[in-house]
Hints:
The chain is mostly helical. The protein folds into 2 domains: 55-246, Na+/H+ antiporter like fold; 257-289. The protein has helices at residues 2-22, 26-42, 47-54, 71-97, 103-127, 145-154, 161-185, 192-211, 216-234, 239-246, 257-273, 284-289; strands at residues 57-62, 65-70. Helix 4 runs parallel beside helix 10. The protein is globular, with a radius of gyration of 25 Å.
Amino acid sequence: xxxxxxxxxxxxxxxxFERFINRSSTSGIILFSSALMAIVWANSPWQYSYHELWExxxxxxxEGFKIAKSLHHWINDGLMAIFFFVxxxxxxxxIISGQLSSVRNAILPLAAAVGGMVxxxxxxxxxxxxxxxxxxxxxxxxxDIAFALGxxxxxxxxxxxxxxxxxxxxxxxxxxxxxxxxxxxxxxDINYLSLATGAGFMAVLVTAxxxxxxxxxxxxxxxxxxxxxxxxxxxxxxxxxxxxxxFTIPAYTKVDEVSFGQKLKHLLDKFNLAKPNxxxxxxxxxxxxx
Length: 290
């Protein structure tokens, strides 16, 4: 009876959930469903509970050294940093050996990003040339990278990879530019000591990459406890730290292609020369070669 229940759960719950999670369009479905739910909640009679939820304060740390931020800030500076880190890894791969590996291919999304920042800012300033409203020229500069990519991934394999890479590069460059504008033109209390500390941790990560360090825990510890925390305390948006950390992750293989191919050929030759036992199982010698 218990076995039948387990098989039923596996068939009707576990496997459908796994198929849903592994689909490329899943992230887009979750994103737009959440956005729709937020719009309905924020405009419902319970709208006050919606805003109170985002202002709920979470504290991490201990007495003497702790970080207290609202849920809204933890999502913007924490979860969005993870998102930018993953996208930064994808972008680095494309720069090294993909669609953006040549200057000719990379210049278009970068130029589009600059245009996407400058044109809206100039248009805003043209409509609001004076007064207090003129100071908001930086607001229309940012592109919502999550929704932009969510639209593409919602369509799944119907969208060519080159378009996804182009939009990813454009959106990241646009977002970094907008964040820098906010940091240097709209933030009055930048902590330059924390910023310098972050630069020090960045130097440690770059040095480790050059020295060939490949330990995941090392990059996670220095990247989160060092680089991300320093940027968070500096007043500059912590998502920049996530992109910088992504670019320090090693992207080279331990064994070069020639050596790998030669080793495989050598083992294949040894396997073919090994004396078989003429049965459905392999011999001890063949097993060791495999």
